[in-house]
Amino acid sequence: MENPTQFDLNQAVRQWRVAFSGTPAVRPSDLDELELHLRECIAELQGVGLTPEEAFWVAKNRLGPPEPLVREFEKVNVEQVWLDRVLWMIVGSLGIGAMVNLVSGLITLSTVGIYGLTKKTDMLGPASLILYFTGLIALFGFLWWSGKRRNGVVWQSGEWIKAHPTAAPVAVFIATLLFDAISIGANMLMSKAVPISVYGLLIMWRWPAAIVPQLAWPLILGWLLWHRSRKVEANVS
Amino acid sequence: MLSKELVAASTVPLVLSILAEGESYGYALIQRVRDLSGGRIEWTEGMLYPVLHWMEEQELVESEWKQAPSGRKRKYYKLCRKGTAALATEKNQWLTLHETFGRLWKTQPNLI
User: pTM of the entire structure?
Assistant: First the structure.
């Protein structure tokens, strides 16, 4: 427990502010206004004799918990919320596409490497396919596992993106281009580095690699929606 | 003391009426309502701000950040042309209700 005489008002207000700031419906200027209100209330309470800590807690209670307030802001700020959702939808689908490209590019490069080292072609097709699926499963497995952890890479990236509203789109754009370039570059390298017959063989083997994710997405989406509706039922009951 | 529905219905006309006297900011509006009603109307403090935001979107009011004498920056709101028109409409509606209740309850409406 902290020493009461070391109550840091600014720190407390900052933490309070974080509780209200998780949503696009409450704009930074709205937050500023709410914070100002809080501080005026605190100043008034200190004026009648409360300590800073007491004043903070009373003022905080008077303003109320974030949930009802955020809901009201969401009702008023419908467009803002939608823009934000559309943004994340686009970022999500571009991001996934870019990451699949990255895996694809890396697998292609390793396939070329294997051929370069062994000069054997008989198992190259199946090996490439297996590597590809392993790569995809590893990528999404990592994202799933990391996304569940508070300080994992996924969370930190999300926080960084939210904290840098101008730099983030540029960074995402560059990353997407980069991953696409890796994939295209790898394919070009492959076409130059292996004999045409091997290239044709590899392409044939990679067809299922292109189709399976397309089929997997509806399945994954369906599962996620079903899982979510079960959780909603559980919360309601 | 007032029901939730009455608070919801009366917030906009109250804000419009107070702003008709001159520009003001959120905290002061809440104080004014409390003083005018003798403490009987207590708004849940944060809830005023989404309403102000909505009123600004509807162009009933406009806002400006200004430096208060205390050095603090405050968001001041003032009535727009549409707001003045809206206030007239609200006044009409509330006074109609007021007169009707007055006749029913046989009390003399305290005309301002």
Answer: 0.62
- Phi and psi at A224, nearest 5°, equal -60, -45
Query: Where is B24: in which H helix or E strand?
Result: strand B24-25
* Average of per-residue pLDDT values in chain A: 82
For residue B108, pLDDT over 70 is answered with: no
Q: Report the distance separating Cα B110 and Cα A19, nearest Å.
A: 45
- Closest Cα of chain B to A132: distance in Å? 51
> ipTM beyond 0.90?
no
Reported as a single tens digit per residue, the pLDDT across A62-83 is 888 888 888 888 888 888 788 8
CB contact under 8 Å between B53 and A68, yes or no, is: no
Residues 6+ apart with CB under 8 A from B89: none
Residue A119 CB: number of other CB atoms within 10 A?
Answer: 10
Distance in Å, alpha carbon of B111 to nearest chain A alpha carbon: 34
| 3-state SS class at B69 | coil
3-state secondary structure of B29: helix
Q: Give the nearest partner residue to A36 out of B44, B57, B72, using CB atoms.
A: B72
Contact A186, A105 (CB under 8 A): yes
Q: Which residue has the tokens 């900052």?
A: A14
Instruction: Enumerate the residues of chain B whose CB falls inside 8 A of the CB of residue A64.
Output: 44-47
Distance from CA of A177 to the nearest CA of B (A): 39
Residue B26 and residue B75 in contact, taking contact as beta carbons nearer than 8 Å? yes
A139: left (phi over 0), alpha (psi -120 to 50) or beta: alpha
Identify all chain A residues contacting B73, using CB atoms and an 8 Å cutoff: 36
Q: How far apart are CA B11 and CA B48, in angstroms?
A: 8
